[in-house]
Amino acid sequence: MEKSVSQSKTTTLVVNGLIAALYVVLTLVVAPIAQGPIQFRVSESLNHLVVFNKKLLWGVLLGVVAFNLFFSEGGMMDVLFGGGQTLLALSITAISARWIKSEKIRMVINTIAFSVSMILIAIMICIISNQSIGSNFFWATYGSLFLSELITMSISAPIMFGINRMVHFEKF
Q: What's the pLDDT band for 1 if we cut at 50, 70, 90?
């Protein structure tokens, strides 16, 4: 039995809501190291969902925005910069699916897109900290953000790949 269009849209909406909630909860679990110049957010593993289904971008984005809005020390700056950085990186990965069919290669692209785009978070931290963009503080902050994101995304990539084999995220 095939799903109707409205059932499919409802399923996608519910799954995105669950992803957003899961993002917030996973980030709260590691809250002491989820913010600042060194960030290890377990929830960042959910960024890989867009590799399997670009419609799941909205749940991840909503999770980032919700956490940053309600729990971030950076407040609205973090909503704008964190949400913008997430939307940019997820969009790069979603668009890459047009030309790159290999999920493994898209996971690498996703990992690189997120790690490189952490420059936006470094800029935000400099603005909040009243530090110059381009200063030693900026480059140290960007370096630590880049590295922490690269580690998190690299470790979670094979895990999310394995979970997808069982769950099949593309069906949502």
A: low
**Separation of alpha carbons 132 and 79, rounded Å:** 21
Tokens of 172: 């949502």
Q: How far apart are CA 156 and CA 160, in angstroms?
A: 6
Separation between Cα atoms, residue 154 and residue 157, nearest integer Å: 5
Report the C-alpha gap between 113 and 120 in whole angstroms: 12
Task: Provide the pLDDT confidence category of residue 3 given band limits of 50, 70 and 90.
Answer: low
Distance, in Å, from the CA atom of 93 to the CA atom of 116, rounded to the nearest integer, reads 13
Cβ 15 vs Cβ 172: under 8 Å: yes
Q: What is the model's pTM? A: 0.93
d(Cα 146, Cα 50) in Å, to the nearest integer?
A: 20
More confident residue, 32 or 139: 139
29 token code pair: 């679990």
Q: Which helix (H) or strand (E) holds 75?
A: helix 75-96
pLDDT in tens, 83-97: 999 999 999 999 999
